[in-house]
Every structure is written in C-alpha cells, then in structure tokens.
Amino acid sequence: MLGAIAGDIIGSVHEFLGGKTKEFPLFVEGSRFTDDTVLSVAVADCLLTGVPYVDTFRSYAQRYPNRCYGMSFWHWVESGSREPYNSWGNGSAMRVSAIAFAFETLEEVLAAAKASAEVTHNHPEGIRGAQATAVASFLARRHATKEQIRDEIETRFGYPLSQTIDLIRPKYTFNESCRQTVPEAITAVLDSTGFEDAVRLAISLGGDADTLACIAGGIAGAMYGVPIDIATRALALLDDELRKTVTRFCRTYAIPLP
Hints:
By secondary structure, this protein is an all-alpha fold. The chain is 61% helix and 0% strand. The chain has 15 helices and no strands.
C-alpha cells in the first residue's frame, strides 16, 4: 500500500500533461495525495475495522474533498445512495492495493477485491480491474516471477501484456477505464528494474498519471519493496489521520515502515 500512495503522490503533478518521458523529479513543491490515496487508505481502514465500504468511502471522501474524485463517484457521495453506479472506471483498481497484503490465498484476494469494487464499480470491467490489480500485487508479494504474473493475468483476466511500455507509449492517451489503465500499469511493473523505474515507466505513458503510477506503485511495492527515502517523503505528505491508519495497517500486516 505504501507503494500505491507514493505512486499517486509522484504522479499527481503529471495529471493531464501528457508527458512521455521518464526524466522528472520524483517530488516537487506541488506533489500531493489525491483521491487515489484517500480511497486506498479507506480500503485499509475497512480491512482493519470491518466497517462497510459504502460508509467508509463516503466518510473519507467527505473528509477529504477536492482531491480530484471522478464526477460519477462524487455524485454518488453527495447523493447518499447505497447502490453502485455500474462504473467501469479505474477507481476500483487504484484503491485496492491493501487487499494483497491482508489475505493469504488467491481465492480470498479475488473475493475481497470484488467486494471492494462492487459497492461503486459493479460493472464487470470495474470488478475485473480491481481483481487483476490485487492478484498481481498478491503474486508479487508471494515472490512469483514476472512471467508467472504475466501468465496469470493474461489467462485469468484476458488482459494483453505482450507489448512493452516503449511500444505502448507513442499511441497511448489519457484514459480512465480499467480496460485501458490496468494492463498498462501492470506492464510498467513487468518492464521495470525496480520500484522507482516502475513508477517512472507508468507516468511516462502520458495518461492518467496519478492512477497509472498508483496501480503500478502498489504492485511494484509488493514486488521490490518501497525505497526508504521514497516511503518517508510520501508519508510526510499525508495528514496525521491518514498516516495513523497507514501505520496501523502496515504494523498489523507486517509491512516494513521507514
């Protein structure tokens, strides 16, 4: 989960810019956490407390407004509805990283990822994106090889992972769907040489930068660990309440903290 938060913060200043380079400073004056971090921590909170996702998501969003939530999600928050809105967007995938650390079997991860998605993103593509992200992180955490991760994601979810980031980048444009965000973020990790490289590759696509980097960062964090300096700077940009929940989650599930 620390990797997802770091990826979100690093990617936050690249949103909508369409940059196609890996060369940029990781943290700058405008770096900030977005809805990706808020809802990632909300999922962790649900796993710790057992409070329903629908209540926790709404509570977190209301406590942290103006963090670039999707329009449909924000309408759902304001409406007070407890029903999902059939979204296929990448919001279900960007918030799911904690699930990979909280369960010990693939079946549990699949079920938990579905549960975290379907309170809002009950479209099959929204559920598939959350499950694929969680499974990739879970397998990375369990020390599966990159080829094993590639084979599992392609076979189980049908996501194409054969192209490299260098081949995807020239024609890739901003997209908020799971179908055209999750495979690219996973590919960034499979192409990477380490955590930082995975985040840079994801952002270099020039798309939905914070979410691509959040998804890639969550998987890469499970695979490589998050470098101490990056984790420290990311945690420093959270407020006390978010940091408290992240710390509690990491200690509960034996995730190293800086």
